[in-house]
Specification:
- This is Gfo/Idh/MocA family oxidoreductase.
- The chain is of the alpha/beta class and about 425 residues long.
- It has 9 helices and 20 strands.
- The strands form 4 sheets. Strands 7, 10, 11, 12, 13, 14, 15, 16, 17 and 20 form a 10-stranded mixed sheet that branches. Strands 3-2-1-4-5-6 form a 6-stranded parallel sheet, with helices on both faces. Strands 8-9 form a two-stranded antiparallel ribbon.
- α3 runs parallel beside α4 and α5 packs parallel to α6.
């Protein structure tokens, strides 16, 4: 009996996900570019499907809706193990088929591009099925959970000649591009450190949204639904992107130093400081929490000998040396639009977030997954407000401590935070993309 994958990313529960033989071809219901040779320029309107159409998948449905209306793509199928939720901003167009199994959809709808927005531990087997079926891929972050999975997916991409864009949408920010240009012009002098701080708040209901929420593993497969790996993964990835700009080469993490904490009986971190040490490049420190006192959307702080820059990556607000205050830098290149442009002109339009660019992130993530259990903070160290699903646990003083960590390139234990524990220090082998 075929096993069914779990698709709701923002809610519901994961089922089991298996890898089967390549999906057999079926009659397509309209024009398709699927039989074009890999790397060839394609001109037909691409057929697009979404696997994991509920939860965060509704964001992708809204993105697809405008492109469908403009005739730049044709939405042909939605997949989810639960009934498709209404999305007023993206009503399901006539003729779109709905499925509960992605393999059934691949055989019936034969899409050219598949958006995969499912729990992280289901990404690899679904992605392999999509590539075997001859479609290109927009894969939500984190793309995979280990370097072994990264190599397996990279091998499948090479074997099939398909393209994979990873859902780190902040990499398409014009604010990041302007920061990169300023670094290239030497406006900050020699970069001595890169840090990021983000202070979010998640209630108890967040950890009840699905059986994989707050879990380290499920049914023997890694999940890692922690702050560093999932909600604040963009903060880490933006720092790695800035580091690549500084050094002019892909980041090769040589060592990570990690402190992980939790304010609930979950299996993963909701608060952490992480230092990434790279040969020949500035150190990177991520200081993040889901138990913050006040909301800090997420800032990337770049310190140099001639000044400091701050990029608030969720809002595209940028402060460069000499600026009196942060300013919004409008414009983002959409990942799906970029993938469609790449399909039409592979040589002339590179992907914004190809799988290869995420190799350093996955290498760090794997070590986070293998690190010891996070330290539990309780008693007088936390403050509890509300009740039921809206119950919130915060750590007094955490915002100020994390800001100091990111700004000074330090871990919490190096700042004499009384409840901090010594870091785990892990050397990393050289990456093979």
């Amino acid at each position: 009996m075929a096993r069914r994958a779990a698709y709701p990313r923002g809610g519901g529960g994961p089922g089991r996900c298996g890898v089967t033989a390549p999906v057999p071809p079926a009659a397509a219901a309209g024009p398709t570019t699927r039989d074009a040779p890999a790397g060839a320029v394609t001109t037909a309107v691409p057929r697009v499907a979404i696997v994991g159409a509920n939860g965060h998948g509704r964001w992708h449905r809204r993105s697809v809706a405008g492109l469908h209306a403009a005739g730049r793509l044709r939405l042909v199928a939605l997949v989810d193990v639960r009934p498709i939720e209404d999305e007023p901003a993206a009503p399901v167009p006539p003729g779109v088929s709905v499925h509960t199994d992605h393999r059934e959809m691949l055989a019936a709808a034969r899409p050219d591009v598949v958006i995969v927005c499912t729990p992280p531990h289901t990404h690899l087997p679904i992605a392999l099925d999509v590539l075997a079926a001859g479609a290109d891929l927009l894969l939500e972050k984190p793309p995979v959970l280990s370097t072994a999975e990264h190599r397996e997916l990279a091998g499948a991409l090479a074997a099939t000649g398909r393209a994979c864009q990873v859902g780190f949408q902040a990499l398409g920010s014009m604010a990041l591009a302007e920061l990169s240009a300023a670094l290239g012009q030497g406006r900050l002098g020699t970069v001595t450190g890169i840090g990021t701080v983000a202070c979010w708040q998640r209630p108890d209901g967040y950890y009840a949204r699905s059986p994989w929420a707050g879990r380290r593993s499920l049914h023997g497969r890694p999940v890692l639904d922690g702050a560093l790996a999932n909600p604040l993964a963009h903060a880490v990835m933006q720092c790695l992107a800035v580091a690549q700009t500084v050094t002019g080469a892909p980041v090769r993490p040589a060592r990570i130093e990690l402190e992980r904490y939790r304010v609930r009986p979950i299996e993963v971190d909701d608060t952490a400081t992480l230092r990434i040490v790279t040969p020949g490049g500035p150190p990177i420190v991520a200081a993040v929490t889901l138990a913050g006192e006040d909301f800090v959307a997420g800032e990337v702080i770049v310190t140099g000998t001639a000044g400091r820059a701050v990029l608030e990556y969720p809002t595209d607000r940028l402060l460069l040396p000499g600026d009196p205050h942060p300013r919004e830098v409008p414009g983002r290149r959409g990942l799906l639009e970029n993938l469609l442009a790449h399909r039409a002109d592979p040589a002339g339009t590179p992907l914004i977030a190809p799988l290869t660019r995420t190799a350093p992130f996955t290498a760090v993530l794997e070590q986070v997954r293998q690190a010891p259990e996070p330290t539990l903070l309780g008693g007088d160290l936390v403050t509890v407000t509300g009740s039921g699903p809206e119950r919130v646990v915060t750590v007094p003083g955490i915002n100020a401590a994390l800001r100091r960590a990111a700004g000074q390139g330090a871990l919490l234990s190096e700042l004499a935070v009384p409840w901090a524990v010594p870091p785990v220090r892990i050397p990393l082998a050289a990456l093979d993309d």
